[in-house]
Amino acid sequence: MRELKTTTVAYGNGIFAIDQQMVRAFLVVGNGKALLIDTGAIQTDIQSIIAGITDKPVTVVLTHSDGDHTGNLQAFSEAFIHANDLENVKTRPEYKDVALNEMKAGDVFDLGGRRLKTLFIPGHTPGSIALLDEENKQIFPGDTVSYGPVYMFGKGRNINDYLDTLNYLRGFRDAGAFNSVYCAHGECPLDPSIIDTQIELTRGIMSGAITGEETPMRGDTVVRLAKLGKTGILY
Ligand SMILES: [Zn+2]
Fold this sequence. Notes:
Layout: E1 7-12, E2 15-19, E3 24-29, E4 34-37, H1 46-51, E5 58-61, H2 67-70, E6 78-82, H3 83-90, E7 99-103, E8 108-110, E9 115-120, E10 129-133, E11 138-140, E12 150-151, H4 159-174, E13 180-181, H5 194-207, E14 213-216, E15 222-228, E16 231-234
Parallel strand pairs: 4-5, 6-7, 11-13, 12-16
Antiparallel strand pairs: 1-2, 2-3, 3-4, 8-9, 9-10, 10-11, 14-15, 15-16
């Protein structure tokens, strides 16, 4: 397997990525606190990496429970996650000492001079959340808004909910709530017009108008990869 390095990327305005090539976690630094959004995929000394960026106290939130977003969670004493994804993390023995707090839509993380609000965005997983910074017009949607390909096969995925979520996020975008998307995979940041393409792709898959190509995955699983522009969905 290719060795994946962990690097730190500064996006400016207090936003940093802990980048592991296949996935990135974000550290958002306010005047009083910092928010770590996801904990990476590959084992690394994440506390040292954070210490190289900020000495402010760090709160950990998970956009969802997929393993490439919860790696290194054992380096922290507590984290926030939506109730619908809680069990998935709680049952992993390596995280037994991490106190998991439930977060819900509307919860606000106030970092001092910077507030991120929780949006409930199920579909990719039942408990996916996004964090919205309306003042800075930035959103952190995990995998949900990204070129992906977004995984929509297997346990817990729900394409109907996913389409509802994309429409919900489009509403926020159209109301001017955000103009840049800090996603966990692929090109970043993204222009929020990507949501229109994702909606078209999701609708196309659901109606059968778009058929993906068969793609072998781990084990015997065969899934289809559908693409529209740069966006992709595995289903
Ligand atoms: Zn995921």
